[in-house]
Amino acid sequence: MKPGSIAIVGAAETTEMGHIPNASQIQLHANAGLNAIRDAGLTAADIDGYACAGEIPTNVAHYMGITPQWVDGTYVGGCSFMLHVRHAAAAIAAGYCKNVLITHGESGRSRIGLVRPVTQPESYAGQFELPFGPSGPPTMFTIPVMRYMKTFGLTHEQLAMVAVIQREWASRNPRASHKDPITVDDVLNSKMIAYPFRILQCCLVTDGGGALILTSADRAKDFPTRPVYVLGTGESTESPIISQMADYTSSRAFRISGANAFASAGITHADVDHLMVYDAFAHLPIFGLEDLGFVPRGEAARFIWDRNTAPAGKLPMNTSGGGLSYMHSGMYGMYALQESVRQMRGIAPAQVDGAKISVCHGVGGMFAASGTIIMSNSSVN
Amino acid sequence: MAAPDVKYSPKPTPETAHFWEGTRSGELRLQRCGSCNHTYFPPRPFCPACQSEAIRVVPASGKAKLYSYVISHRPAPGFKPPYAIAVVELEEGPRMMTNIADCPQTPEALQVDMPLDVVFEKLDDEITLPLFRPAKGVGR
């Protein structure tokens, strides 16, 4: 795919966000999807490509009244939507379809019609992890951090600062779940979940959804929205179980996905104005900054501590408040993409002045998969 | 309605039966590739490094070091929080998830890189879990 040849021309989240007790999960898909279709000035009849994760695409396409000629149900966890964008761009370039809708809806908090994968007792996770007492991502995704701390000297205070700075961003976002400022002490005195992680270093559990519409850049000018061009993309996978992640201080999937995104976009790190790094837990922005190559290994915590990613910093990161303070329904990647699109459209609540290039980096499972999308409000960089 | 307070029970497959037979008889079993000499875990009937099927089952020494861990404060069937969920690195190279037995479940007692020895905990007639405890003695 040539950089800038595909554009995002529709983007929207669910009308409500956070606690939505009056909608099932498939309705959250439809609500976000229909909002995005309206945003793009289209009707459902114009959508000829469709992708989603978790739900079977057949179910949602039928529910929404969409007749796709191209379908993608890639489901690798919370970064699935980054992979959908990448696959959709390739499909449009190949001529398989013209207008691709990607939806996400998740009743993570209210759990109405929630679809979640079942871990079979015969799987690697079932045989070699679950017998040892992990109870969800807070007790598994976090396991590498003690090794990272010993290797690089990451401190508890530095890990807490990640949440503090993201709350600063969230305080600027009216739709954020948590907006009240917090301090490092607040984080370190919050409820212990899985040492060294406390509750303020763990993501929210909310309801919501989001949707994107992609088309070819040469058609983008016919749409009412400011086009956001896809410059570069990457994706990869590593281990489905955290115990088999090769290096507890660096994600192979992050490195491959990020490097391919930068190479295909033809940009350097100095070109990046805005960054989203999927933050299910406070260590993920640290891994993301390093594995994407923004800072050398072992230096991300200090980079964050020194306010480089904070409001008025040189690399604004997770400007919506992220999964820690904005919203996290279970698979967060769609909300990271939405914030990158808002920043490129120039309409984000905490808008980064003059931002032209945004990097949006996702994780799936627990360092199990990754997807990276680089976008811009200019088709040429 | 409380869940039964017993640990999650794994189900062996044809590809992993030798591992669970091993723990039942007090032996920690790995696999080694005859083509590239890679020693690996979890089990599969070919080498994940070179895909050779010329592999054999080998006993591990049972010596390991604590690679990383969390101390979970969340409820889980069969566990009394707080308890450590650990990943250990075996002397032979592979890593595995486990629990640390005979040790206070505290950051002070659980030091990354501390030497450990395997110990076996019988769950039921079919499943015996490999746990690890702090190594005894000096010279390691």
CATH fold name of chain A, please? Peroxisomal Thiolase, Chain A, domain 1
**Run of helices and strands of chain A:** EHEHEHEHHHHEEEHEHEHHHHEE
Largest interface: A-B, 38 and 37 residues
Helix content of chain A: 25-40%
Number of helices of chain B: 1
Main sheet: strands, sense, barrel of chain A: 9 strands, mixed
Residue runs with pLDDT of under 50 for 5 or more positions of chain B: none
Which radius of gyration of chain A do the C-alpha atoms yield?
Answer: 19 Å
What would you note in describing this structure?
The complex is a heterodimer of chains A (381) and B (140). Chain A is α/β, with parallel strands linked by helices and 381 residues long. Chain A has one domain (6-114, 204-376): Thiolase/Chalcone synthase (Peroxisomal Thiolase, Chain A, domain 1, 3-Layer(aba) Sandwich), CATH 3.40.47. Chain A has 13 helices and 11 strands. In chain A, the strands form 2 sheets. In chain A, strands 3-2-4-7-1-8-11-10-9 form a 9-stranded mixed beta sheet, with helices on both faces. In chain A, a hairpin with a 4-residue loop joins strand 10 and strand 11. In chain A, helix 1 packs across helix 2 (57-64). The longest helix of chain A has 15 residues, at 25-39. The two termini of chain A are 15 Å apart. Chain B is mostly beta strands. Chain B has one domain (17-134). Chain B has 1 helix and 8 strands, in the order H-E-E-E-E-E-E-E-E. Chain B has one helix at residues 17-24; strands spanning 29-33, 39-40, 55-59, 63-72, 83-90, 95-98, 115-122, 128-134. In chain B, strands 6-5-4-7-8 form a 5-stranded antiparallel beta sheet. A 3-stranded antiparallel beta sheet of chain B has the order 2-1-3. In chain B, a hairpin with a 5-residue loop joins strand 1 (29-33) and strand 2 (39-40). Chain B starts with 16 loop residues before the first helix and ends in a 6-residue tail after the last strand. The model of chain B has no long low-confidence stretch (mean pLDDT 95). Chain A binds chain B through residues 120-122, 124, 126-136, 138-140, 142-147, 149-150, 191-197, 241-244, 248, and chain B through 7-13, 16, 42, 67-76, 78-79, 82-83, 85-87, 95-99, 107, 112-113, 123, 127, 129.
